[in-house]
Design goal:
Blueprint lengths: L11 H6 L12 E5 L9 H6 L6 E5 H22 L5 E15 L2 E15 L9
Antiparallel strand pairs: 1-2, 3-4
Length: 128
């Protein structure tokens, strides 16, 4: 992963191709929701890559706090306690067509559905 230099101005090429922090300034009902949370990563370098904005989608704050984050914690607990091998997790979204605008341009596409699937080849079948 290439680390970009920090500056007051985001390079235009990056801003044209991906989400930047400024896109969330006017998104008052939304927060960045992780697709792959850091808790699902064991290696520190893998954990750090989860903080990229390309790993986030705008989620309604209430949904993030009351549903998505508790669900991610439940999955993490199940895998930590009952998976006796490496696990595999895939997360995805479908989009509604609506978007959050910044400077009169569509910047953040709002998800309609958010899903997660996991596989554990050696899952304890006697677990809850």
């Amino acid at each position: 992963m290439k680390v970009l230099p920090l500056s007051d101005d985001t390079p235009p090429l990056i801003e044209d191709s991906q989400t930047v922090l400024d896109d969330y300034i006017d998104a008052v009902d939304y927060r960045r929701g992780p697709l792959t949370p850091d808790q699902h990563q064991a290696d520190p370098e893998h954990k750090s890559s989860t903080y990229m904005l390309t790993n986030t989608v705008p989620l309604v704050t209430d949904f993030l706090d009351s549903s998505w984050n508790p669900y991610l914690n439940l999955i993490r607990q199940r895998l930590n306690n009952f998976c006796h091998s490496k696990s595999f997790i895939v997360t995805g979204v479908t989009f509604s067509g609506a978007a959050i605008k910044r400077d009169n341009r569509d910047r953040l596409v709002i998800p309609k559905h958010l899903w997660l699937a996991y596989c554990c080849p050696l899952y304890d079948r006697n677990s809850p």
